[in-house]
Amino acid sequence: MKNILVTGGAGFLGSNFVTKTVNDYPDSQITVLDKLTYAGTKSNLEPVIDKINFIVGDILDQQIVDELMPKADLVVHFAAETHNDRSLLSPYIFFETNILGTHNLVRSALNHDVHFHHVSTDEVFGDLPIKSREKFNEDSPYNPSSPYSASKAGSDHLVRSFVRSFGLKATITNCSNNFGINQYWEKFIPNSIRSVLKGESIKLYGTGENVRDWIHVDDHTDGIWAAILNVNQGETYLLGGDNEISNIELAKLILSEMGEAEDIVEFVSDRPGHDRRYAIDFGKATSELGWSPNKSDFGKQISALVSFYSNKSKKEEMEKE
What we know:
The protein has helices at about 10-25, 60-70, 85-90, 90-110, 145-165, 190-195, 215-230, 245-255, 285-290, 300-320, and strands spanning about 5, 30-35, 55, 75, 115-120, 170-175, 175-180, 200-205, 210-215, 235-240, 245, 265-270. By secondary structure, the protein is an alpha/beta fold.
């Protein structure tokens, strides 16, 4: 799988995947297809931009998809609308990009006999009771709560239908919340850091007790590659970070790292359909792929991210002047 087409490769997950893949698999030839929406920027790929082929384009454009697909051995599909809050305001674009865009890709991958790896989320399963010990696994029923998670559930089912009905060569991974560098400011960790830098409160929905499992983006990349290289067609693997923490506790951790008092947390009206808890059982990935998360020292990782996003925020403010 030397020739790799990465959709959404200028976004947070995609750019980290591309950068790590260039370093880990230097013989690979990577083409990035990205629409460069608000959440994607070519600068995310700056460390490797001279080692890849970058194309500005939309996965909804069947022509460009069909032009690129014959040159690929593998497609890794990150391109998606991903923010829950935005999906509540403008649902249509989520279904258009996440389902119709995925359809364009799987149809073309099938026609050209290209392995298709679909990157998805644990949010398709809905949520778990906050105080339970339950975890999602590959057999958990789908129960999406938002237009975003419903659109990703639809794309998962779409890929599986092409596997069963047409023989598409595909694998799927569903991951928990990612953290790392180059995440867009609207996401919880960078948004909280920037709020503190601007002298604003960290805003939490409801009581802040909602729990998330966090996986480092590099561990996520390694899990994706483990699933792809196993080449067990049609299989799904769940990838988690074994870092369960409530939103309020994460906010306090960030404040502690920034030397700020906990009283600048502000509770706001809860989001409609807000999932209570995510937790992933990644036992199948460990037993079948030999994968488990390596970057599980969450406090150390948050400390590094406070430094990264603080510097990034200062740089952006300087560029505005």
